[in-house]
Specification:
five-stranded antiparallel beta sheet; four-stranded antiparallel beta sheet
């Protein structure tokens, strides 16, 4: 029989919307992979997943009714055990053959492999390929078992006795190979060809599927269901754009991929409708209104061309009545109390200044060992002031300390209590209402930035100082009490905090030396019991994360290793160091100089003499090659230092090309470990000077093959 397309569907009660995309992909991928491993589907087959609120399904092309038979080489036992001195089967071999359904007549077919005592008996047999019914039963069980179910539900089958555990109660199973039903079972269900469409708008119930290929079309035409998650998502996106254009020029729905995914998982036949609310609510910060519409109602707010919220919003309905007015009015009625709550919170919060909320921070626990939010605030305030003192020319110490004082007070407001996602944002609004300096208000919002990879950095120096202080206090504080990331466990998101610190130091931290900056953070924890100075470990952690970050940005492991081997203190200079290393590596002389640098390092490590160039004496040079190297170094080193001091790292490294010939000649003609102690020490000092000149930008020995 020729291969035919296979369709499998589980019809269930409403699935959790946030988990639906992952459930659909997993079901399709695992089931197809299992059939492939059993030889029932080709290795390059591409399954088509379907996932809607009430179904998980997959269509797999070209599935065989039976897998091909396989030749199997069965290892039996050593020849010495299986055959006697006359070459006849021993009782042990006969027993083994009997277990395989064979008898003594199979003995002549045995095959020997190996030599001497290692010679082993094998028998070649043919294992029949799995039938589709057998293979699909196994694949279906595996696909169900491996579903990433967020929370399992236990329910009883119709017999009243059998308990089944699954993400939601399952009510139907379809398995079609072409037009034929495959007799498999799962979750107490037996496969058939019947499924169900939309709860209210299906033209037929049940829907009798003709074959595997008619599934999506029959569901759309007879069941009013778009079975494909991706197709349904694209349909919703298109309807949202069309409705926005119809609502007015320049209007567009808020861009939120997570919201679009969630709504796609809530409807089977999307119908986008235009609604509106009282424009008076627009006096409330738009972030509050947008969040309450998105989080509570799954609505899409409409923004104008400038990104400002309008009083119109879009609803994705699961029904398409001829007259949608009742649906529109219902949604407008539901959203009004939500917006009124936001309005009430906003008005109530503004009756109390942020400064008056500061004492309340001492009553909020931050960490059992690190104290209250008030204690944390005072630590951040000290750090922010210290960082601000290193930010010329503004030196915004007073503003940074003021912003740190107020930064966490919005945690005590009703609005943030209802919507924690608005922390910082509401602090900015309330600070502005209180008449705080604009930079202070802005910094209160920005001190959480960057919140994720690719997020914006704080806009001002005040925000930069506060954000860096806040993340540093978290990292140093938790490291200091032993709360460090281990493996895949990072309950305090310290890796994310670290990436934020690295981005700020690399992009804005030109005047901040890493070691001193970390050491300055330790004293603020002087009152914390059991706190141990973690600055060295934190610095190592920062460099480890920085290495990962730089490799993700496209720098090679060698380039990163060469630069970070020197533990650069000004991280803002690291990108230019990397660019210089890459430019140096492209020079014809680079490989030889890197190898020489590595050789120099090895010599100095093993020697008992000079480790630096301070004891070098030009009067002790006797060999022409060492004199030539010293002269070349005297000519090049000052220029290297000049370029290095100016921050032109590329030019500094390119100057080293002039040293290739004298370095090569030196190693060819000069014995470094001379018998004369004075000569030996002087030559080691010369090599130390060479290493110092070469390794200012990066450890070039790390570039050696």
């Amino acid at each position: 029989m020729n291969p035919q397309n296979l369709l499998v569907e589980l019809f269930v009660e409403e699935l959790p919307p946030k988990a639906l995309p992952a459930l659909g992909e997993s079901f399709a991928r695992t089931l197809a992979a299992s059939l492939q491993s059993q030889g029932l589907a080709a290795s390059d087959v591409k399954p088509t997943p379907y996932a809607s609120p009430r179904r998980l399904a997959v269509r797999i092309p070209a599935v065989a009714a039976k897998a091909a038979d396989k030749a199997v080489a069965q290892k039996l036992m050593p020849v010495a055990v299986g055959l006697d001195a006359d070459g006849k089967p021993t009782p042990a071999l006969l027993k083994k053959l009997g277990a395989l359904g064979l008898d003594a007549d199979a003995a002549p077919r045995l095959r020997r492999e190996g030599e001497g005592k290692a010679e082993t008996l094998f028998i070649d047999t043919v294992a029949p390929g799995a039938t589709l019914a057998e293979g699909l039963q196994k694949a279906l069980a595996e696909a169900i078992a491996k579903l990433p179910i967020p929370k399992v539900m236990a329910y009883q089958l119709e017999d009243g006795w059998t308990t089944v555990k699954f993400v939601r109660p399952a009510h139907g199973l379809v398995a079609l190979h072409g037009a034929d039903v495959v007799p498999v079972q799962a979750l107490g269900l037996t496969a058939g060809r019947e499924t169900h469409g939309h709860r209210f708008e299906a033209q037929a119930d049940p829907i009798v599927l003709r074959d595997a290929d008619s599934y999506a079309d029959q569901l759309r035409e007879q069941g009013a269901v778009i079975a494909s998650f991706d197709a349904r998502r694209a349909e919703i996106a298109a309807q949202l754009q069309a409705a926005a254009r119809q609502a007015g020029p320049g209007l567009h729905p808020i861009d939120d991929a997570a919201l679009l995914d969630e709504v796609t998982a809530l409807v089977e036949r999307p119908n986008v409708l235009l609604c509106q609310f009282d424009p008076a609510f627009l006096a409330v910060p738009q972030e509050c209104l947008i969040l309450t519409m998105k989080a509570n109602q799954k609505y899409f707010p409409l923004l104008d061309a400038a990104g400002k919220l309008t009083h119109r919003f879009l609803v994705v309905s699961n029904i398409s009545p001829a007259d949608p007015s009742a649906v529109i009015e219902g949604n407008e009625r539901v959203v009004r109390p939500r917006l009124a709550d936001a309005q009430f919170f906003f008005e109530q919060d503004r009756k109390k200044r942020l400064e008056d909320r500061v004492p309340g921070l001492d009553k909020v626990v931050y960490h059992a060992r690190l104290g209250s939010q008030g204690e944390r605030m005072r630590r951040v305030q000290a750090l922010a002031g210290g960082i601000a003192r290193q930010i010329p020319p503004s030196f915004p110490v007073e503003q940074a300390e003021r912003a740190a004082l107020l930064a966490k007070t919005d945690l005590l407001t009703d609005m943030v209590g209802e919507f924690p996602e608005l922390q910082g944002i509401m602090g900015r609004y309330y600070a502005a209402h209180d008449g705080e300096d604009a930079r202070v208000a802005e910094a209160i919002e920005d001190h959480y930035k960057p919140r994720f990879s690719g997020d914006d950095l704080p806009r001002s120096d005040v925000g930069f100082a506060l954000a860096l202080a806040d993340k540093t206090e978290t990292l140093v504080g938790l490291f200091g009490i032993g709360e460090r990331p281990t493996g895949d466990k990072d309950p305090f998101a310290l890796r994310r905090h670290t990436l934020g610190i690295l981005r700020m130091l690399m992009e804005r931290g030109q005047g901040i030396e890493l070691s001193r900056y970390l050491e300055n953070a330790v004293p603020v924890f002087s009152g914390v019991a059991g706190f141990s100075d973690p600055s060295a470990d934190v610095q190592t952690f920062l460099y480890d994360r920085l290495a990962n970050l730089l490799r993700e940005q496209g720098w090679t492991a060698q380039e990163v290793d060469a630069v970070l081997a020197l533990s650069p203190q000004i991280l803002a200079n690291v990108p230019r160091r990397l660019e210089a290393v890459r430019a140096f590596a492209a020079l014809p002389e680079a490989a030889a100089l890197a190898a020489a640098n590595k050789r120099v390092g090895n010599i100095l490590r093993k020697s008992e003499g000079a480790k630096d160039g301070s004891g070098f004496n030009a009067d002790l040079l006797v060999e022409p090659a060492e004199i030539a190297l010293s002269q070349a170094l005297n000519a090049v080193a000052p220029q290297v230092q000049q370029f290095y001091a100016a921050g032109d790292y590329t030019a500094a490294l390119k100057m080293l090309a002039a040293l290739k010939v004298p370095v090569d000649t030196f190693f060819d003609q000069v014995m470094v470990n001379a018998e004369d102690p004075a000569l030996r020490a002087n030559r080691l000092a010369l090599l130390a000077r060479l290493q110092e000149a070469m390794n200012q930008v990066a450890d070039l020995s790390r570039l050696a093959a």
